[in-house]
Amino acid sequence: MANKKSEETYVSGEQYHAMQPGKHQPARKVTLPVSGVVAVIAVIVLCVLSFVGGMQYQKGHGKAASSTTATSGAGGFGGRGFGDGRRAGGFGQVTAVSSTSITISNQRTSASTTYTITSSTVITDNGQTVTTSDIQAGDTVVVSTSGSGSTTATTILVNPSFGGGGGQAGSTGTSQGN
Length: 178
Prior knowledge:
Elements: H1 13-19, H2 34-72, E1 88-97, E2 101-105, E3 112-125, E4 128-129, E5 140-145, E6 152-158, H3 169-176
């Protein structure tokens, strides 16, 4: 009778569990550092608050700018449509003014245009309502009319400021224009 040697192999506990059918290794837990999660949440909240704050700021300042444009009547330069696009008019230096008309010269093209002034023409200087007697030859003005074919002034802005700093706005307005 022959001795049969059975071959025994050593199996570790991990190997034994791996060989068992239907049994799986326990899932590893993934942990995130709490400080990292808090930092990400804080950044997201800060971004949202900044966005909302910026929108509120813009709402408050956007209305002031658009209402100034609408009430000031800077609706057009030479009929090319500026602002709301429905108005026309001109921009230049006053060469002659009377109670019923104003003549301006475009500094770029040297063209002169005469506009009719009526009792409904609104004339302002630095936000204050003025009369034709307050307009002097050499003043820079923006004249708005009701349409591109009209020469009746609806508004006249005397020495307008376009927010480019101090000084006379006429020279900065024409260099920045169209």
